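Question: does this match?
>
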Amino acid sequence: MPYAQLHYPFENEAYFANGFPADFIAEGLDQTRGWFYTLMVISTGLFGKPAFKNLIVNGLVRFWPWTSAAKQVLFLNELEEVLELCRGEQLVQVQDNLFRLLAACLGSSHFQVGDRAALCVNVSRDVCIGHVVVLLHFVSTYTSPHLFFNYLSAIYSFFQVAERALYYWNSEHLCVNVLSQSKASIFLPYVFGPLSKSAAGHWNQAVEGLAQSILKM
């Protein structure tokens, strides 16, 4: 909202009043804690109401943080909230990119140690666990408790990408409007492969069980 641009409230009061609040504003996810927040604070302080009627967050799928599992989990949370506000017809324009992204998350390797440590990919479960045990022992011995919990948080988050994506099927709204049986012919070609692979056997029993339940649906 152009508070300063219009030199409001010192002039252009009528012009400002005709366009306030805005019908919508649109920006990237990062601005939910930046520009969007500033608009809300100023508007609430001046007028006691939001500065916009609708908020559009763009680029959520396009700029996916593939190198950080912790951020992927955060984005999956944000994306689910956005999708739950959408109607079925609004998803047509983005459904291919959406299901392609969801398939990639469903097939994500869970046991990556994190940004600050070595990756454990395509190795046996025992080897992965061994790496994590050694890493945590080293970190807990030679770092402060604060840093230890930072490392533990980073490691734990990497377990969550595929599991978090699977929980999309627990949302009643998503199952009706996004992942419904009527749309199966659209999203199954993308997600059937990673779902079948996890359902056939996965070291994480939660992932295996969720994948099997979804395929039965």
The chain has ten helices and two strands. The mean pLDDT is 76. The first strand starts at residue 25 and ends at 28. Residues 68-110+160-217 form one domain.
